[in-house]
Every structure is written in C-alpha cells, then in structure tokens.
Design brief:
The chain is of the alpha/beta class. The protein is built from 9 helices and 14 strands.
C-alpha cells in the first residue's frame, strides 16, 4: 500500500496529497518536483512544513523596530530555500501600511524608511505593479531590492521557508492529540537523541485525547458530528499507523547560519526548526523568542 501526506498549499479549495516514498519526499525540496505547482496552475505548495504567516512577519518587524527605535531606516533581508507560497510579501506590505507614510508620526521630522533586500526567486517577489502602488501609498518610504549581488548587513533576516534534508517517514511512538470536537489537532515534535539532535520527528497520526467528561459537555449535534469525524479519521489513519506515525527531517542549517551571519537578528518559522537548532549556529547567537506553531 502507498502512503500519502497532506501538503500545505495556497488553495482553500483544493487539497494536495504527496507520495510518502522517500525519493518523492526529497522532490518536495527540488524545483523539478514542484514545477507543476505555479501561478499558472493556480496552486503553489509550501511543503510539509508551512512558512511565515502574515502576523508572524508583522510581529518580527515590530520587534526589530522596538529594539532599534532610534533608527530611521530598517534593513531587512528575505531569503527562502524553496519556491513555495509565502505570506512574507503581504506581511511586509501590511506592516508598512500600518507604520509608514501617513501613519508615521515622524514623517514631518525625518520619516522612517524600510529597505528590503530580497534574495528569493523573481516569481516569489512582488510584481512591479504591486511595488509601484505600495511605494505611492507609503510616500516612497519603502525600497525593495531584488537579489543584490553583494551580501549586505541587515537588521533582520527573514527566512520565508527553511528547507529540509533527508526527509523520511518512521515509527517513533508519537501521535497528534485531537480535541473533543475533532476539528483541531496539535502536531508533537521532538529531537531524536540518536542523531545528536540533528533530526526532528513530527507526529502525523491523529489520536483523540479528550476525556469522557469533556465529550459529555458537548451539544448533541456536536457529539454526533465528532463521533462520525473521529471514526473517519480512525479508519483512514489507522492504516497509515501500521507503516509510520512520524515525519522525520533535518533542517538546513547552512541557510540558518548564513542568515545569522548577515543580520543582527534572524526570524524563521518555528514549524521548520526546533529551539536547539539555534544553539550551535554561532557562538555569538542566542534565542531571543520562540513560540510553538499553532
């Protein structure tokens, strides 16, 4: 029997399932394997771990603007290991509309400016028309440079998508708790001791963890729906549980090391890394803030 994994995508209508065979999982990190998913098709995929959301991008820039409150110009570098869909562009634009231009309290005495060094592929960057509109809205207080030749020092490095290495499916005795209604699940992640913490295992098989008392408090219609949904999940995922229960991968630390080296602070989605991934990046780096993915 063949195993398929759900892959995060830009579509709210279509679901994307990817083969769980190891060679096929490796194709998720290659351009050849993802070539069919583009703007022409109307669906782009993020991979097995999602990238930055709009609120995360806004919060990252907010934090840096608070830390460097006296700076009139903030420089941000953006990079990505994959060509998957991302909310970086939208997050940066939303922060700019909230903090720059007419919204900038210092615009009459020395307006703030946001400079973006975008090292991603051209199709991941904003289109010229979008940048033109944004520049006009913000009174030219934002500058966006595409793939600069020289490595420039930035105040913040955003890794839109951190790639993975050696992806595989394995049995680690882990499960993803599902709430009483059956609509929410939390994926559990842990480092594998045998790999000196280099590999991370993430649970993929769901399991209802709610107590009978919690279930009894639900309305009758919710009980019925939850029961049916639970049975469907159990019938499908129990077949996979005989083969695997976890997705095992290793984050691409070279990308993380490069970002930390070129910026005072680095922001990366916690859906791709474990806190310990930061500990050995540099003797001069430390973990500023960390939130588990929701």
């Amino acid at each position: 029997s063949r195993v398929f994994l759900s892959v995060a995508s830009s579509s709210d209508y279509w679901g994307v399932l990817w083969s769980g065979e190891r060679d096929q999982l490796c194709l998720l990190e290659s351009e050849a394997g993802r070539s069919i998913f583009d703007k022409e098709l109307g669906i782009t995929i993020e991979g097995l771990a999602s990238g930055f959301s709009v609120p995360q991008v806004e919060r990252a820039i907010d934090e840096i603007s608070f830390i460097w409150a006296a700076k009139s110009t903030l420089r941000i570098s953006v990079t990505s290991d994959t060509s998957g869909s991302s909310s970086c562009n939208e997050g940066i634009a939303k922060w700019g509309r909230k903090e720059l231009g007419e919204q900038d309290p210092w615009r009459m005495k020395g307006a703030r400016k946001l400079v973006i060094y975008d090292d991603r592929q051209a199709d991941l960057q904003p289109e010229d028309a979008e940048l033109s509109t944004l520049t006009q809205e913000l009174d030219s207080s934002i500058e966006w440079y595409s793939r600069p030749k020289d490595a420039l020092q930035a105040d913040l490095a955003i890794i839109a998508h951190l790639g993975t290495q050696d992806p595989d499916l394995d049995k680690q005795g882990m499960s993803s708790p599902i709430d009483a209604i059956g609509l929410n699940r939390v994926r559990v992640r842990r480092q594998l001791p045998a790999s000196d913490g280099k590999y991370i295992a993430e649970s993929r098989i769901g399991k209802h963890e709610s107590s009978p008392e919690t279930f009894e408090l639900l309305p009758d219609i919710a009980k019925s729906s939850s029961s049916h949904l639970s049975n469907i999940i159990q019938s499908i995922e129990s077949k996979c549980a005989d083969i695997f229960d976890s997705y095992v991968f290793k984050p691409k630390k070279p990308t993380l090391e490069k970002a930390v080296g070129l910026a005072r602070y680095c922001a990366v989605s916690s859906s791709n890394v474990d806190p310990a991934c930061f500990f050995t990046v540099s003797e001069k780096s430390y973990l500023w803030d960390y939130d588990l993915p929701s």
